[in-house]
Amino acid sequence: MDMMKAVVFRGANDIGVEEVPRPKPGPGEAVIRITTTTICGTDVHIVKGEYAVRPGLVLGHEPVGVIDQLGAGLEDEYTVGQRVVVGAITPCGQCFYCLNGVHSQCRGPLGGWRFGNTINGAWAEYLLVPDARANLAPIPPGLTDEEVLLVPDIFSTGLSGAESGNVRVGDSVAVFAQGPIGLCATLGARLRGAALIVAVDAVPQRLEMARRFGANVAINYRDQDPVAEIKRLTEGRGVDVAIEALGKQETFESCLRAIRPGGTLSSLGVYSGKLVAPYESFYAGLGDQKIVTTLCPGGKERMRRLMSMIAARRVDLSPLVTHRFALDDIAEAYEMFSNQREGVMKVALHPKRVITEERGEVLLHAATTADEDCC
Ligand SMILES: [Zn+2]
Ligand SMILES: [Zn+2]
């Protein structure tokens, strides 16, 4: 049996590189060779044991790669060697939920999220892509892996915060938490035409980045009360839309306090435990507020749209990729990412040992080596 290297979840706070069977595609499936992937905040929840997955599972849900094998029925649309992105969410496009337009809930609650959740994920040399025709999205020529690395999850999720909140031209928007997803929500509010965008966080570099991504006001909640300041900036009313991008009671509550009557709380965070809506900011349940939640939109058409924004140079997410590691060094990468050391935003992980410039070794960019290092 052909084997490959992959990062396996063994139990809470226990992950490691192991040799596992290399996947083979069935009809309608494809196998891609991963060239670049990354670590998500959700993976941290999983590794800590806060979100349960089965031991033995390969983690990771943000794949950038090259088509390695195609199962039956795909040859008319795809070719081996093609560079592709696959969304973190892989809808089938045919079930009750997909045909009702909620692709992320494909086949049932959270069912569209399969990689590194219910099936083996992207922290590996090879990845089996289910329902490949709905999910393999060719990368436009000229874009590097790192330029599209945030497309499978972070950009799609962050932008969806503004979309689900139905941000309109001239709206006021507050985005609570400016991690990679919050920053993409800030960017999303700008793309949707918000006039006032207030970014809230406690890390100065993240607030600085928020300004680059479209915030006109950046509030450090350690220095001032964000809700009071948001009320002051909106003639006492509150914002039209508040986006929650952390998944904590405090930020959820602040969002609720920050929106005007009739406003929308658009929630992106992954929560654990109980979530409480305080009586006064919930107006006893009579405030005409909307609370909407969104799981990352996936599927190849979503990926195509997001990559078209990058190809057209309307969006540049590469400043968010701050560190590079070989997949073998997952322990080091995870330690840095989960503890937010060294100003890390997102790490690029390369299954093939490509070594970074800052370590004084050769940088083999995955995008330029894609064709020459065929197995
Ligand atoms: Zn994620
Ligand atoms: Zn489906």
Individual helix count? 12
* Uncertain residue segments: 355-375
Please summarize the sheet with the most strands: 7 strands, mixed
Subunit arrangement of the protein: single chain
Rg, please?
A: 20 Å
Helix content: 25-40%
Q: What keyword list fits this structure?
A:
375 residues; alpha/beta; seven-stranded mixed beta sheet; six-stranded parallel beta sheet; 12 helices; 15 strands; disordered C terminus; binds zinc ion
Model description:
The chain is built from twelve helices and 15 strands. With 375 residues, the protein is α/β, with parallel strands linked by helices. The C terminus is likely disordered. The structure holds zinc ion (2 copies). The site of one zinc ion (ZN) has 8 residues, from helix 2. One zinc ion binds next to loops.
Q: How would the blueprint of this fold be written?
A:
Layout: E1 3-11, E2 14-21, E3 30-38, H1 41-47, E4 64-70, E5 83-86, H2 96-99, E6 126-129, H3 132-135, E7 136-138, H4 145-148, H5 151-164, E8 172-176, H6 180-191, E9 196-201, H7 204-212, E10 217-220, H8 226-233, E11 239-244, H9 249-258, E12 259-267, E13 290-293, H10 300-311, E14 321-326, H11 330-338, E15 346-350, H12 366-369
One zinc ion binds at residues 40, 42, 61, 88, 153.
